[in-house]
Amino acid sequence: MSISELQKSAESRMNKSLDTLKTNLSKIRTGRATAGILDHVSVDYYGSAVPVSQVAAVNVVDARTLSVQPWEKQMAGPIEKAIRESDLGLNPVSMGDSIRVPMPALTEDRRRDLVKVIKNEGEDAKVAVRNLRRDANDGFKKLLKDKDISEDDDRRAQDVIQKLTDRFVAEIDKIVAQKEAEIMTV
């Protein structure tokens, strides 16, 4: 592998870490209703655990209410049960063929707990980015040891990876701060 290939690989993997962070943070519930909040809730569908979005249409009715419209009428009960038993703290209400999911207001303590979870997610993402930096630097050291690159090339490549790492860590901090502000607004 060449220096540029190692750098491109590290950057694409760092982007994936950033995407994972965004996905994980989108699952953290704020006071507002978003259709993505039910993405990781699984429903028993003929013996298979599938996400709610694959057995029903999830729509935002207003700022505090979701509507879940099952594609098969007999799935309303299992979907309601899955949402109720999820770790989201939601209490769905069956309304004939559809299910309404009101979003309860967050208490101050719950907001603080969610901020801790957000910070932990951010820290995990930073650790992942730093591990990718280490892997890239190990690749450069191996190239140097095999005499495929000079010491100057090794130093320059490590500097590029460090700048890349700093950029992604700053982006992670920015995303975490935005989500924290979103959670703390009443």
TrEMBL record:
Compartments it resides in: Cytoplasm
GO BP terms, alphabetized: cytoplasmic translational termination
Major localisation: cytoplasm
InterPro entries attached to this UniProt entry: Ribosome_recyc_fac, Ribosome_recyc_fac_dom, RRF_sf
Gene Ontology molecular function, alphabetical: ribosomal large subunit binding
GO cellular component labels: cytosol
Keywords annotated in UniProt: Cytoplasm, Protein biosynthesis
Domain of life assignment: Bacteria
Domain Ribosome recycling factor as annotated: residue spans: 21-184
Its job: Responsible for the release of ribosomes from messenger RNA at the termination of protein biosynthesis. May increase the efficiency of translation by recycling ribosomes from one round of translation to another.
Family of the protein in this entry: Belongs to the RRF family.
NCBIfam families: frr
PANTHER family in the cross-refs: MITOCHONDRIAL RIBOSOME RECYCLING FACTOR PSEUDO 1, RIBOSOME RECYCLING FACTOR
Protein name: Ribosome-recycling factor
